[in-house]
Amino acid sequence: MKSIINILKGVLIGIAAIIPGFSGGTIACVVGCYDELIEAVSGIGKHFKQSVLTLLPFLLGILIGAMSIFPISWGLNNYPLVTVCLFAGLLIGSIPSFHKNIKGKSNKNNILSAVICGTIFLVIIILNLTIGEGNYVSLNSSAWWAYIVLLLAGMIGSAALVVPGISGSMVLMILGFYNPIMDIIKGFIQVVGNSLGLNLSLDFASSQFAESLNNGFILPAIFMILCFGIGIIIGFYLISKLMKYLLTKHKTATYFAIFSFILVSLVGIYAVPSYYEGLSPLEIVLSIVFLILGGLGSFYISKLAEKKETVEN
């Protein structure tokens, strides 16, 4: 039963990690598995078997969640504000539960930690608004350096899975890598699907990229996706080591910083001007409804989890 629950938690983390403005680390915090994940990843060298057994359900869930890129992409393309409000509601409803980690522990150092980290994330959001949108780095599959760039991009993107509040997807978007990476993944799926006679026609950020797709893209795409994945694994391990140190040596200050990231991330979630273009009255109503439903749902789930934890203790 615990494995099934951990898979479901992984699904939520995977979904959050691929949406710009959301953080998989934040979701891990609010569903109560963040410390467990950090401990398993950072201790994989010392307790390999135990760590792998702990991580497997979460990894399976993350992969399943990441596959939701297509329905979520459809929702963001057609009803962006409605889609975002559902996830924002899930985040807001979980804040009271997470707030208990810092309640009554305010002091100068902890507040300073929250202010500094919140300011850093605000700067990231501002950068995303000014230079991130529409920024597209061309990754030529025939250039050797493209694979190294994808390795580094994966290490940067892993922040979405490790550091609560920091959206790796948003950082990748600022640097111009989010859309090309999504295009590579979708391009691979489209070429493979079409070679199997499925006649897929997916949306791409770059029309030039879409026009260049052919069967010869399959092998380079595999290596490019593999490089990005290896980068995520390396970054995930290194950042997990850092977070374990911070949670061990400066736990309260770290939780204040995480709480600040979570609050500021709500600004980042809604700081996308295109979400508000051509809104109909029905979309506005649905956005409010989905925000409330998401908030009530996550609040109720958080309460159930707390009740279960109290009974077990």
What's the quick description here?
This protein has 313 residues and is mainly α. It has helices at residues 2-17, 24-30, 34-42, 48-66, 69-78, 80-99, 108-132, 144-157, 159-162, 168-175, 178-195, 207-211, 218-249, 251-270, 281-312. 41% of the residues are buried.
Task: Explain the overall architecture.
The protein has 313 residues and is an all-alpha fold. 76% of the residues lie in helices and 0% in strands. It has 15 helices and no strands. It has helices spanning 2-17, 24-30, 34-42, 48-66, 69-78, 80-99, 108-132, 144-157, 159-162, 168-175, 178-195, 207-211, 218-249, 251-270, 281-312. Helix 7 runs parallel beside helix 14 (251-270) and helix 13 packs across helix 14. The radius of gyration is 20 Å and the shape is globular. The model has no long low-confidence stretch (mean pLDDT 80).
